[in-house]
Amino acid sequence: MLKGSAISPGIALGRVFCLKHFRLENVAVRTILENEVENEVQRFQQAIQLAHDEINQLSQLPQIKSSLEIANIFHAHLTLVDDPDLKKEVLKRIRERRQNVEAIVSSVTRDYSEFFKSLPDPQFQAKAIDIMDIGRRILSNCQDENASPLKIKPDEKVILVAEDITAADIAGFDTSMILGIATEEGTTSSHAAILARSLGIPALVQVKNLLQSVVHGKTIILDGNSGFIISNPTTAQINECKVYFEAFLAEKIDLKNIAPSLSITKDGVRIKLLANIGQIQDVDSVLTNQADGIGLYRTEFTYLIRKRFPTEKELINLYWSVIERMGDKEIVLRTIDLGGDKLSQLLKHPLEKNPELGWRAIRLSLDRPDVFRTQLRAIIKVSSKAKPGQVKVLIPMISGISELRKTKEFLGKLIEELKNEKVEIPEQIKFGVMIEVPSSALLADKIAQQVDFLSIGSNDLVQYTLAVDRTNSKVSHLYQPLNPAVLKLISLVVQSGEKHLKTVSICGELAGDPFFTILLLGLGLKELSMNSICIPKIKNIIRKISISEIKDEISKLLEMSTSEEVEEALWQLNKKYQIASKNV
Ligand code: PEP
Ligand code: MG
User: Fold this and answer.
1) Ligand 1 — pocket residues by CB below 6 A?
2) Residue among 297, 300, 436, 505 whose CB has most ligand 1 atoms within 8 A, to mutate
3) pLDDT digit string (tens) for 301-349?
4) CATH code at 267-576
5) 21 has catalytic annotation
6) 22-142: which CATH architecture?
7) What are phi and psi of 327, to 5 degrees?
């Protein structure tokens, strides 16, 4: 039995397909004659053009387009493969060093990657992975069709096994042929992990001795819930696995049937289930999963994929197309949350030592009134076209009252400006802020008096409360949403909302994780916003919970000392009420 870290739940039974990447350092170096130089140059140009076309094609796949983070990787890959400096450097070295194209691509890729790795900024360090990925793709395109590992495709459904895997590798396969994924390296928060989760493929990373313990073509069982791999399973183990699949399929059918039913607890409390989206394409899934509305529209995506700032008219058209498709359901438009790990080429982001603590979200918007003004004018204009109260505006990362006042003043001035332009203004634009910094959670009582609603961004609230960079795998074990400090802050925000009769929702990843549903309901949350594919499962759980029955038990968790204690107690409660099994 092999053990790894489970990153995407589910169980897979199938044959191993070993995906062997080119090892850039193992590429053969061949000296070429002067009259072969042009041939190598041509091979490089063909390989790079092919790489460009492949990435372009991959980026159009629905599984890529439906995730903002994944779409961003492919966008970054395309920028790299089109980078004129990279091309120039390869051509220069082919001519100067007189070596085959594979050797030159390998050396340029490694040099670039080492350079980025040596920079102090983690965002640039992460770029090293993208560069290696691109290098391997170009190399693979220099090979003849059948010799290239990236081009070999399995002819039956398989479990992919590799030293490491990238989102591009996964997307390059027909994903319906992938039963599971296991790698020797990799991290929980990698883009490959996010893609595996969003595709519902069970997956493990960091499986020690994986490549030397499993054999290409042999059957294994991969357990994405507990993190185990059983190589050469016995008949009894295979049968057990089949029983699991039947239960899993039955649950899938149940969840489909549950979509039209109300999201209501056993004791009659209506819980709103909203969707998080990043772009218009996400609305299909919002409608299929019958969300009550959009609780978080991450509008920054538009600024990440464009080469110039969107105009007010373009934003109005974009927002309106989302609103129109949602009928009369509510839409919460969050103003741009750029900076941190979301850098737009349209803004001059300074190189910051601590980008997550720096020029990000509302701080950046207030510093760039031109950009903020265009977006807010578009939001006000679409609100006046929509049903009253249907569109709400949400401000990310408010960290204090002065910042909140400044933002409200800015909005107020814009409303006046539009009135002077004789633009019809809705009677009231619902205005809310994200609570994702401990300072604003502690001041929630005051903030709640000045806004219409609060939305807890638990992804950042955990990061800032525990001082753990949410993108840094070195400290990912310290990123503990169940730390009692986090729970106390969430509870405080909910109570402040209740006191001032303001709605409080939660829109971080916790909201879509079944293991946390009982906790969030017990803390008093009545609006959860999540990736829409999670909605049926969460609704199913909500319908099994009676808030009056669990409230006292949940409040006891707030008095615990460590996340481990809370996790164990929550596990017991989930078991007691037969709600959810432990998640990843
Ligand atoms: C959050 O921080 O929980 C959140 C929803 O915002 P984002 O993940 O976009 O930072
Ligand atoms: Mg956030």
Assistant:
1) 296, 298, 337, 436, 457-460, 507-508
2) 436
3) 888 777 789 999 999 999 999 999 999 999 999 999 999 878 888 888 8
4) 3.20.20.60
5) no
6) Orthogonal Bundle (1.10)
7) 65, -125
